[in-house]
Amino acid sequence: MSTYTVSQAAAQTGWSPRMLRYLESTGLVVPARSAAGYRRYEPQELALLRGLAELRQGFDVELDDIAFVVRLRRDARLRAAVEHWLAGTAVPAEGASEADWIEWEQRKHERLLAA
Amino acid sequence: MSTYTVSQAAAQTGWSPRMLRYLESTGLVVPARSAAGYRRYEPQELALLRGLAELRQGFDVELDDIAFVVRLRRDARLRAAVEHWLAGTAVPAEGASEADWIEWEQRKHERLLAA
DNA sequence: CCAACCTTACCACAGTTATGTCAAGGTGTC
DNA sequence: GACACCTTGACATAACTGTGGTAAGGTTGG
Questions:
Q1: Are A33 and B85 an interchain contact pair (Cβ–Cβ within 8 Å)?
Q2: pLDDT at position B100
Q3: With 60 as the cut, is the pLDDT of residue A92 above it?
Q4: Taking CA atoms, which of A100, B5, B28, B88 is between 20 and 30 Å from A18?
Q5: Which of the two residues, B18 and A87, has the higher pLDDT score?
Q6: Alpha-carbon distance B65 to A93, whole Å?
C-alpha cells in the first residue's frame, strides 16, 4: 500500500516526526491510523505537508494563520462575522484595483506621518 | 468636531489606552494624528474597535488571526497560495453543503478514534 | 525473538502576544 | 502657569507556540 509512517513522511517532507505529531494536534494535517494506532500518511497528505512548509517559508505565514483560515472555511457564522468587520475597514476590498491599494497606502502614510 | 482622544476612545470601546496603541502598532486600527501628534479616533474607528472586541470575545479569535485576514485581503499572491493549499485539504470547500460537513466531521472522528 | 520502529506523556526552552505600569517630556485649557 | 491630558520608550510578565528531547511501553518484520 502507499501509505507512510510518521518518520517516512517526515523524511519526505522535511518536517521532523515531532512536528508531524504537533501538526496533527493542531488539526492541520490529521493522518488515518492503523489498527495498532500507528499514523498512516497518504500521498495527498505528504503534498499538504510540503505545501505547508512552502507557505511558511515563502510567505512568512504562521501555522496559526493557516489554522485560522481552515477554521474560517468551515464556520460560516465566523466567516460572516469577520467579513462584516472587514466591511467597516478602510482597507480596499476583494475586487479593488492596484491603484486603490496605492492610494490607500499613501493615505496610511499621511495618517502616520501627519504633523 | 467628532473625533476622540485615545482615552476617550478607550472609554467608549472597552479597550485600554495601552491596547489602542498596541492595536495601532499591529496595523489593525490606525487613527489619524493631530498637528501635535495626538491620536484622533473617528466614529468609524470606534465601531471597528468595538467589532474587534466582539470578535475576540464571541469567537475566541486572536488579533493575529484578524491581522492575517487583512493581510490575505490585500496580498493577492498570498491569497492564491493559501487557496491552492486549501484545495488539497480534505476539508469541504466554500460551497459545500451542511451534509458534506457532517460527513467530514464523522470521518475525522473515524480517523482520530481508529484503532 | 530482537532490533527498529511506533505510541503517549512529560520537561525544557526561546520567542511572541497581549497586557500593565512607570518615567521623562510635550500640549492645551482655564 | 498649573493640572490633566498626550507622546514615546522601557521594563515586566503570564500565557502560548514551535521545537527539541527523553522515558516507558506496544508493534512488527526478517
A1: no
A2: 53
A3: no
A4: B88
A5: B18
A6: 18
